[in-house]
Specification:
Layout lengths: L3 H16 L3 H6 L10 H15 L1 H4 L6 H26 L12 H16 L2 H18 L6 H7 L1 H17 L5 H13 L2 E2 L4 E2 L4 E3 L5 E2 L4 E2 L4 E3 L3 E3 L19 E2 L4 E2 L4 E3 L3 E2 L4 E2 L4 E2 L8 E2 L16
Parallel strand pairs: 1-4, 2-5, 3-6, 4-7, 5-8, 6-9, 7-10, 8-11, 9-12, 10-13, 12-14
Helix pairs in contact: 3-5, 3-10, 5-6, 7-9, 9-10
Length: 307
């Protein structure tokens, strides 16, 4: 047994060291001392939105519209309170919010943003139901819409993404990224909240899909597992700072991209195109393209050839 004095000495020494604010730590924290966003409460915000958009699936079914209205109203009031608080905590990360200084100003701005977001819920609902329809239509293994909503990772991911994207459009800091990363950690699908995705979007299986910040995706687009819509290279200013400029692909309407394809750079995939699996593509292709791998060469080995 190690004596108690030695144990206490090690603990006290490291408590003292870890309690000090290092230079790097201070540089990475916001200047204010306000509370930081709560990951758990952000998760609860997404749960509330799901219960409002898919009330019959994530709540007790209420066929009567009066009862349905009551429960949605309760959830929406709770959503407003939670979202206002978390946006207020996130605003301290805002780089161009010099006008928002006092606590009252912060909460007034946060409530305005939360109400503006709530005004977008009907549009988020419309888009998500197009995603459910696309997933059902593209998967013969889906027996009904209910199984798609309950079980398919793309629905969970797109719910997170479409919430986060609206908040991103409102220039809410930090919160949108927390929301999409929660879906990423659960489903393996990584969509930046800044990406623009149209209606009837479908991802089959989904694991390993990556969609970058400046990607633009049209309507009726289907991706398979492992697809990357990424950047090929980065641009820098004269001081060597990386520039946040458009650097991800544009995917037009009615495009299908099969598993493990990598589409890189600010290129355009024309409408009604098909990109085969395991393709590495860094140039634009016109509409109705079919980009496939070369045929495999079937060659036998004799007398030690190939060893």
């Amino acid at each position: 047994m190690i004596d108690k004095k030695t144990v206490n000495g090690v603990l006290q020494k490291n408590v003292a060291l870890m309690s000090k604010h290092t230079e790097k730590e201070v540089g990475m924290m916001p200047a204010t001392e306000a509370p930081l966003p709560s990951v758990e409460q952000v998760k609860q915000i997404v749960t509330l939105v799901k219960s409002i958009i898919f009330p019959d699936y994530f709540n007790r079914r209420q066929p009567d519209e009066t009862q349905r209205s009551y429960y949605i109203g309760v959830h929406m009031e709770e959503l407003l309170i939670l979202l206002t608080k978390q946006i207020a905590h996130g605003l301290q990360f805002c780089e161009d919010c010099e006008a928002i200084r006092t606590k009252e100003q912060v909460y007034t701005e946060a409530e305005r943003l939360a109400l503006t977001f709530i005004d977008t819920l009907p549009e988020i609902k419309r888009q998500l139901y197009t995603d459910v329809e696309a997933m059902f239509d593209n998967d013969p293994a889906a027996p009904n819409y209910g199984e798609v909503i309950f079980c398919y990772p793309v629905v969970n991911t797109m719910t997170h993404y479409r919430i986060a994207h609206k908040l991103h459009e409102l220039k809410v800091p930090v919160i949108p990224r927390i929301i999409t990363e929660q879906a990423h950690s659960k489903t393996g699908i990584d969509i930046h909240p800044g990406a623009q995705i149209g209606d009837y979007f479908s991802i089959d299986h989904g694991t390993g899909v990556v969609i970058g910040e400046t990607a633009i995706i049209g309507n009726h687009v289907t991706l398979y597992q492992g697809v990357t819509l990424g950047a090929k290279s980065f641009k820098y200013d004269e001081q060597g700072n990386m520039l946040n400029v458009p650097r991800h692909p544009i995917i037009e309407d009615h495009v299908t991209i099969y598993s493990n394809a990598s589409i890189l750079g600010r290129i355009t995939i024309g409408h009604d195109s098909v990109i085969g699996g395991n393709i590495w593509l860094t140039h634009s292709v016109p509409p109705y393209s079919r980009i496939l791998q070369s045929k495999a060469i079937d060659a036998g080995f004799q007398d030690g050839a190939g060893i």
